[in-house]
Amino acid sequence: MAMFPTRVLLATDGSQDARRAAGMAAELSARHGAELHVVYVEPMPEAYFDRWSPAQPEFLDDVRDRAEEEAREKAAREAAKIKETGREVARIHGKVGLPEAEIVRLAEEIGAGLTVIGSRGLGPLRRALMGSVSTGVVRHARDSVLVVRGRGRLPGRILLAHDGSGEAEAASQVAAEIAATTGSGLIVLVALSLLTRFPDTLAKDAWGETKERARTFVEDEAKRLGDETDTAVEARLALGKPDGEIVKAGEELGADLIVVGSRGLGAVRRSLMGSVSDSVVRHAHCPVLVVRGG
């Protein structure tokens, strides 16, 4: 069974979404007894260092040292805000370089099982075209990533997207644990893609059987998670493009958190369209937790 990680890394840049991310990171860490680390990365392209390093290595060292000190000071200020709420911060980190690379590298170094980051989104168009730091972290991190936008608060309503995969099963265990510790409502959604209708399943009767199997699966999963959390868990079945249906359901249900496995629909589908989790992170109105494992 997947368990909530024992160490959480909050990546902050002082933005509004980063402040919301800090609130969720502190809340989740406290409720699960996890160690919270805070990092601020001072952005600086590697090309800048490459340009100066051959001619003036002392100048380069001075620039990096000053930037790292500034990053540590900013991280300390953000950590102080968290401490004012009564939450603990185990350690602060100041880094310099490409933010997504430094965040992923640090998460691996300290063994963080979850990285929390604000989306830095600027509305639907910005999210649709996003090549942001949060997207880079989601795609390259080895462990789970929580991207925060919108309300960013718990307890609330948690929407778990399940496709029957191993990573979706890991996501379901984490979602159930968060629901139990925060007192949040849990909804399990299976989005059945019409793309699964290969020639041998085009017949009306066969497609009907496919839908019934999916309905039975999501109802059974909701009952299992309900028994584990000792709460009522709602089951929902949607027909359509999974990422779109997940985002749509999140908005219609007023979800405060969407939880999804990091893989979706197999390698071929991912290579052609990008993963379901990537798309949900880009377009969802609320925080999205991408769980790796399983």
Write a structural description:
The structure is a single chain. The protein is an alpha/beta fold and 294 residues long. It has two domains: 1-149, Rossmann fold, CATH 3.40.50.620; 153-294, HUPs (Rossmann fold). 50% of the residues lie in helices and 21% in strands. The protein has helices spanning 16-32, 46-52, 57-84, 99-110, 124-128, 133-140, 166-182, 204-229, 242-253, 266-273, 276-283; strands spanning 7-12, 35-43, 91-97, 114-118, 144-148, 157-161, 185-192, 233-239, 257-261, 288-291. A ten-stranded mixed beta sheet has the order 3-2-1-4-5-10-9-6-7-8, sandwiched between helices. Helix 7 links the parallel strand 6 and strand 7 (185-192). Helix 4 (99-110) packs across helix 6. It starts with 6 loop residues before the first strand and ends with a strand. Mean pLDDT is 84; it is low at 121-131, 197-202 and 264-274.
Q: What's the SSE blueprint?
A:
Blueprint: E1 7-12, H1 16-32, E2 35-43, H2 46-52, H3 57-84, E3 91-97, H4 99-110, E4 114-118, H5 124-128, H6 133-140, E5 144-148, E6 157-161, H7 166-182, E7 185-192, H8 204-229, E8 233-239, H9 242-253, E9 257-261, H10 266-273, H11 276-283, E10 288-291
Parallel strand pairs: 1-2, 1-4, 2-3, 4-5, 6-7, 6-9, 7-8, 9-10
Antiparallel strand pairs: 5-10
Helix pairs in contact: 4-6, 7-8, 9-11
